[in-house]
Amino acid sequence: MEHLERCAWVLRGTLVRAAVRRYLPWALVASMLAGSLLKELSPLPESYLSNKRNVLNVYFVKVAWAWTFCLLLPFITLTNYHLTGKAGLVLRRLTTLLVGTAIWYVGTAVFANIEHYTGSCYQSPALEGVRKEHQSKRQCHGEGGFWHGFDISGHSFLLTFCALMIVEEMAVLHEVLNKRLLRASVITEYHRAWFVSPC
C-alpha cells in the first residue's frame, strides 16, 4: 500500500493542477507534429513496436477506450458520490462517458471513411498496377492487394482523447482533497487504486 500511496501522491501533484489541463492538449499536438516530422525526415527501421501485431498495439491501443471507460466508470461514480451524495448528479456526470463513447465511435468511423474514399487498391506496396476492380479496403486485402489512402492516425486520436478524458476527470480530486471528505478508510484505498490505474 505504501507504493500505491507514493504513486497516487506523485500523480495527484501533477494531474490535478489546472495548468496541466490547460497545456496538455498543446503538448500532445506538439509531440504529434514533432513525431510526424521526425518520421518523415528520418524513417525508423523496422522493429517489434512498428509491427501492428505487437502486444501493446493489440491489447492496449486498439482497446484504449474500453480500458479508459472501465477505469473511469467506477472512479467517477465513487468520487462524485462522495462529493455530492446524490445519485442523480452522479448519473449526470457519468453521461460524459456516453458522450466520449459517441465521439470515439463517430471519430473512428469518419477516419475509416476518409481512408476508403481517398484510397485505391494496388498490386504491390510500391504503388504499381492499380487494381480498379476492388472498391473497398477489405476486398483489396482479401485478394492480396495493398490499399493506399489518406490514413488519419486513429491511434493518435484515440490515445490523445483518452489522455485528455483521464486528466479532465482527475480534476475532481482537487475538491476531494480540499474538503477532506475521504479520510483514512477503505474508500480512500479504493480511490487511490482507481486514481493510479487509469494513469
Automatic annotation (TrEMBL):
Q: Name one GO molecular function term.
A: coenzyme A diphosphatase activity
Q: Name one Pfam family in it.
A: FIT
Q: Read off the InterPro entries from this record.
A: FIT
Q: Which GO terms describe its biological process?
A: lipid droplet organization; lipid storage; phospholipid biosynthetic process
Q: Which residue ranges does UniProt annotate as crossing the membrane?
A: 58-78, 90-114
Q: Which domain of life is it from?
A: Eukaryota
A single Gene Ontology CC annotation of this entry is: endoplasmic reticulum membrane
Q: Which UniProt keywords apply?
A: Endoplasmic reticulum, Membrane, Transmembrane, Transmembrane helix
Query: What's the protein's topology in the membrane?
Result: Multi-pass membrane protein
Which compartments does it reside in? Endoplasmic reticulum membrane
Protein name per Swiss-Prot or TrEMBL: Fat storage-inducing transmembrane protein 2 isoform X4
